[in-house]
Amino acid sequence: MTFGAWLAHVRGGRLLHPRGCSFTGAVQLWGPLAEWFLPAGRWPAVIRFSRGTPTPPGWPDILGLAVRVHAPDRPVDLLVSSAGRAPVLRHLPLLRRDFATTYGSILSLRHGRHRIYLAVSPATPGRLGGAVEQLADVAARRPIALRLAAATGTGHWRTFGRIDVGEPLPSAVDAALAFDPTGHPPLRLRTGGLIQRLRTVTYAASRRARGARTDDNPIAATGQRPLA
Fold first, then answer.
1. How far is CA 207 from CA 4, 12, 129, 204, in A?
2. Which helix (H) or strand (E) holds 117?
3. Most buried of 3, 33, 50, 196 (most Cβ within 10 A)?
4. How high is the mean pLDDT of the chain?
């Protein structure tokens, strides 16, 4: 058993981002950049907000956002962490108190010879708070939408999508969710490099330790309707 698998087994759950809240959702893509990710259009999705470590609510933390887009041929998984938008800061995970923040891919993806970074930021005003337990209440009171953008290491962000958050999923479904950003990458963006390989090994060990699968459709399992 690897160290990652052992630690996940001891925790009885995820090795990384153990506390979270998941929702149905939809991803709308448009323009030329959409073709890097998936064909333009509106796709059903699952969205998970999470805290990186077991810090108390209200404390700064590395906040996470995971999106699974259910495309016809295969799912596409996107994992981003709280980060900055400026060229230097988009490479670094940053501590944040509120889920209404900017999230970045941190590690680059490749399109041909170009290094591409993805970012997600709020598209609707208002705070979301820093407690995962309160996110469902916020979503019930008002719409939550996020922008999806891409940039090179030093270039400007270009918006090519919108993520709409729907209804909360049961806690048991959230606990069973497993995302695989290296096994389910965007259509025309490639992962690579030593850190990406280490990330793949760590996530795989965590999934094995808790018996999670990456090909499940949690919306179908619950009978909930995807966000139109």
1. 10, 11, 28, 5
2. strand 114-122
3. 50
4. 83
- Cα(47)–Cα(146) distance, rounded to whole angstroms? 11
Alpha-carbon distance of 110 to 190, in angstroms, equals 5
The per-residue pLDDT for range 55-111, each reduced to its tens digit, is 887 789 999 999 999 988 889 999 999 999 998 888 899 999 999 999 999 888 888
Q: Determine the Cα–Cα distance for residues 155 and 151; give it in Å rounded to an integer.
A: 6
Which residue, 194, 190, 149, is CA-closest to 34? 149
Paired tokens of 37: 């990710």
Q: How far apart are the C-alpha atoms of 192 and 106, rounded to whole Å? A: 13
H-helix or E-strand spanning residue 21: strand 19-29
Place of tokens 């995807």: 226
Under 8 Å between Cβ of 184 and 214: yes
Give the range with max mean pLDDT: 11-20, 130-139, 173-182, 215-224.
Answer: 130-139
Written as one letter, the residue type at 33 is: L
Note the pTM of the prediction, 2 decimals: 0.83
* DSSP bridge pairs for 109: 116
What region does 138 belong to: left with phi over 0, alpha with psi -120 to 50, or beta? Answer: alpha
